[in-house]
Amino acid sequence: MVEKNSNADIVFSCEVEKHFHSEIIIEDHALIRILSGEMRVVQADQTYAFVAGDTFLLPRDLPAAVIKRPKDGRPYKSISISLKPDRLREYYLKHPVKTIQSHRPKIKTFDKHLLLESFFASLLPYFEMELVPETIISVKVEEAISILQNIDERIDTVLAYFGEPGKIDLADFMEKNFMFNMTMEKFGYLTGRSLTTFKRDFKKAFNTTPQKWLTQKRLELAHYQLTEKKRKPVEVYFEVGFENLSHFSFAFKKQFGYPPNALVK
Fold first, then answer.
1. Does pTM surpass 0.85?
2. Where does the HTH araC/xylS-type domain lie (predicted)?
């Protein structure tokens, strides 16, 4: 994958490989415009497919798997704008809004709008530069926030909230998100708990340790994908939460008594 200005808040990405798959748990809101190709965002309960011309907001602290690939003979290309807390705080100091309550934001999609079209068109010439001046980036990020406010009256409930996730039902969250490869600290954070409290509440809910439970759930999901969906080990190990194929194969054989490729016929 090629990225220009990848150290900045505005990034142009060109996916030149045939297929790119990763997990994200972004720490900043990201406003994304797809220029060509396709991006699929897979969450626990829903999958989004975005193609050329689509604009959407990925909220912070969102567990998801992202698949980027060419489409209609064109490579994956996109523009991504990180809306970092420091820039958002600075913006809302100048443009205050009412107190925002804690909530769990979801992916927001935006219909085509003249303001969005002109904004992203104005960014394209900057990607010919090796480094975009910070003053320009600051102006364009502020412009993006202003445009979102104009086209979505509820966007401030997402962008102007700076608190941490509130405490939620741990068992329900884990059952929905066990396939995402996160640290125990991140699972705790997203359920509104410290690491110590997370482990304590997890033990109460499942009567085992988080790591043992996660491994078993991921292997059960992998077994289902291999037997019922007729997929290959190389296609499923990453999606169910393992970092590499060899570790997955070792854990699978230890759990079921045979390697995962024994199910491929």
1. no
2. 168-265
120 shares a domain with 247: no
Angstrom distances, CA of residue 110 to CA of 63, 83, 91, 123, 174: 21, 16, 21, 18, 30
Sorted by sequence, the CB contacts under 8 Å of residue 110 that are 6+ apart come out as 55, 56, 57, 116, 148, 151, 152
One-letter identity of residue 245:
L
Q: What pLDDT digit, counting tens, does each position of 30-84 carry?
A: 999 999 999 989 888 888 999 999 999 999 988 888 888 899 989 999 999 999 9
Which domain range does residue 196 map to? 170-263
The first and second tokens of residue 176, run together, are 């929905």
Same domain, 100 and 215: no
